[in-house]
Design goal:
Helix 9 crosses helix 10. By secondary structure, the protein is an alpha/beta fold. About 45% of the residues are buried. Strand 10, helix 11 and strand 11 form a beta-alpha-beta unit. The protein is about 40% helix and about 15% strand.
């Protein structure tokens, strides 16, 4: 028998239909109130759920949504009271009617599994964390699935591996950099530069897509791109060469980047707005990027649900940051077009799961209804990956792209300034 469970987003209940009534009995009629990975959601940011989801509890589970996005599971506590009086574990246990910490762990685990299915319903294949075993003594709707051993305990691709590592890395970083300290740093940070405006201006000035030039030392697919890597020197060369904005890799393990590069470029007086190129899995990272000098952040649709993207967009806007929402396939593009507030959508011609590239992906995703909606919304489409020649730039521009994000083909050049001129077939600098 079907059961309808109201899922609470910020200020709205989202009804979600469950095929398994036993799951409804297990977690009860609950409102899932989201937090931002361990700190309460900013109640000044409204987040309207973009869609409703039909969830079948028999689907193969994936851990795509971190349990720390849940503040609690109770329908009786308002966001205002939650802000004034944060819930303790005792409060949570009382709200759920559980008697022990063991019971609470089971409830939390079940909600985590339930959240996974919400993500699956949106076509998200990347699991955000390694699968965890059911708590001792668990019996419930996920039991058969566990007995059948349908959950792989190792990453299925490189994006999933990076995402699992990023979750652990962010947890460690949060201990060293508490949110309250970050908020103070943000208050004292210099104002952000207009990332979107810079791209529009460059497009109008040159007649070419505005260039987001990437400061990038390495990648998992290509290895080291530049041995003698000086991020500030490269950034300054990009700016002289006519880049509208810069993208700075901040992931250390897989891309040999770092937030120190972002800070150094900003401190050196580079005027181009800066995109923090990071794998965002936690809203804390938005605050951290802003504190370190970013003007924009990257949100990858392959690892974030619609509600997460919606909230992160609003948080970014609140902090003065632009947000580039990256998609790779038609389903992700459809999701992005259904989310309010997106100004920048990036089409990655490289699959982040397999690293295979296909420049025709840009044209495919901008044809038909998707292209019409993008023009209607006046969104800036950013072409990403597989861009090496003037013909490549012309191809994506003809498809409807107004900006391009390019790293490998120019960072490998001895003179990145000349590399930009070679990429566009002419000098696009302002000099």
């Amino acid at each position: 028998m079907d059961a309808l469970v109201p899922v609470q987003s910020a200020g709205q209940r989202l009804p979600v239909r469950l095929v398994s009534a036993s799951l409804h009995r297990c977690i009860g009629s609950v409102s899932i109130r989201r937090s931002v990975s361990g700190f309460a959601m900013d109640t000044r940011i409204s987040s309207r759920a973009p869609s409703q989801f039909t969830i079948r509890s028999q689907q193969v589970p994936h851990r795509l949504l971190p349990p720390l996005w849940l503040k609690f599971i109770a329908s009786s506590v308002s966001f205002d009271s939650m802000k004034k009086n944060p819930l303790t574990k005792s409060d949570l246990k009382e709200s759920l009617g559980v008697a022990s910490s063991s019971d609470l762990r089971i409830k939390e685990w079940e909600v985590d599994m339930y959240q996974n299915e919400l993500a699956i319903s949106q076509g998200i294949r990347i699991r955000r964390k390694p699968p965890s075993k059911a708590p001792l003594g668990y019996t419930g709707p996920f039991e058969l699935r566990l007995l059948n051993g349908q959950v792989a305990d190792s990453p299925s691709n490189i994006l999933e591996e990076i995402t699992w590592f990023k979750d652990q890395e962010v947890s460690r970083m949060k201990e060293l950099n508490p949110l309250e300290a970050l908020k103070k740093a943000v208050e004292n940070a210099p104002p952000t530069r207009d990332f979107v405006g810079a791209l529009r201006t460059a497009h109008q000035r040159t007649g070419f897509p505005g260039l987001i030039a990437e400061v990038k030392k390495a990648s998992p697919s290509r290895g080291i791109l530049k041995e003698n890597f000086d991020p500030v020197e490269i950034a300054q060369a990009y700016e002289r060469g006519g880049a509208a904005c810069l993208s700075v890799l901040t992931d250390q393990k897989y891309f040999k980047g770092g937030f120190e590069n972002l800070e150094a470029i900003r401190s050196a007086g580079v005027k181009c707005p800066l995109l923090c190129k990071e794998f965002v899995v936690d809203p804390w990272q938005i605050y951290y990027a802003r504190a370190k000098g970013a003007d924009a952040v990257l949100l990858i649709a392959a690892i974030l649900t619609d509600l997460e993207i919606t909230y992160l967009l609003k948080l970014s806007k609140k902090l003065g940051l632009a947000a580039l929402v990256e998609v790779h396939d038609e389903r992700e593009m459809g999701r992005a077009l259904g989310i309010e507030g997106i100004e920048l959508v990036g089409i990655n011609n490289r699959s982040l799961e397999t690293f295979k590239v296909d420049i025709s992906n840009t044209k495919k995703l901008l044809e038909g209804e998707h292209g019409r909606q993008i023009r209607e919304k006046d969104m800036i489409v950013v072409g990403e990956s597989c861009l090496f020649t003037p013909d490549d730039i012309a191809y994506v521009q003809d498809a409807g792209v107004k900006a391009v994000l390019v790293g490998e083909s120019i960072v490998k050049q001895n003179d990145p300034e000349k590399g930009i001129a070679g990429l566009f077939g002419k000098n696009i600098s302002q000099t």
